[in-house]
Amino acid sequence: MKRRRRWRPLEAVFWAATLASVLLLPSKHLILNEIAILGLFALSLDLILGFAGVISLGHAAFFGVGAYCAGLVATHGITEPLAGLAAAAALTALLGWATSYLVLRGTDLTRLMVTMGIALILGELANQMAWLTGGADGLQGIMMGPVAGWFEFDLFGTTAYAYSLSVLFVLFLAARRITNSPFGLSLLSIRDNPLRAAAVGVPVNGRLVQVYTLAAAYAGVAGALLAQTTQFVSVDVLEFHRSADVMLILIIGGTGYLYGGLVGAVLFKLLQDMLAGFTPQYWHFWIGIFLIALVLVGRERMVGGVAAAVRRLARRT
Fold it and tell me: What pLDDT does 156 receive?
């Protein structure tokens, strides 16, 4: 277990590069902020999918509730961003705990339907309760104060990116600690063989409820970050495409090792930005082609092929 907790050189390189982007890429802070939020959202799904084997197509439910919670907290006079994050985490954790007993029943197909149904119900409620959420016009009038009373949000996204990145790093450390603990190992045993895990004394249902609640809180914090850094919330945060996108991110980056969501978020957002600039109407088509190739060829082969091509090019030069 101590070996699992040790930091590998590539991890240090990853976070060093991430920190350097704050200083070296000032013109890209807005898109980098989106990537950081998307990475945290994907990390939350990886906790239940990659480590516990619980599949979900309605993870946007927690993302959207977290966004609305942070937005409503701000519109009611509490403009401290960290207070909004705490409120969003608490509310979505409660929602995750309450819905976990529905989600954890049945097979994977049942879980897909139940999670998607919960997200659709919440999306329709947000649309109909215009007196609270703003309905189709969105929740407006969100004004955020300085982070920790010191750092004002700016138009260039510098404070927003540094804020989102800091929250991502802290929650990543917590997730890394949890997944490398006996609790995390018990989740892996449940994912691989729940009957065997139960036979050796692992409380399967209890563990799944706990990790589902934790993942819901993480997704809620990601939604809260989006609301606070854009200062706007619409019904779009609860739409199905949010859940589908985060699932695609994990398909691209891989599951079960935490960095899959982060790497996948970077690749997905860069691909989306590049393809939208190249063919704005058909970028979904090219993303689909990439995913089909990824599934047919395999992530390891594709990555290995790219690495081999880079090495050959380096030798020639």
Answer: 85
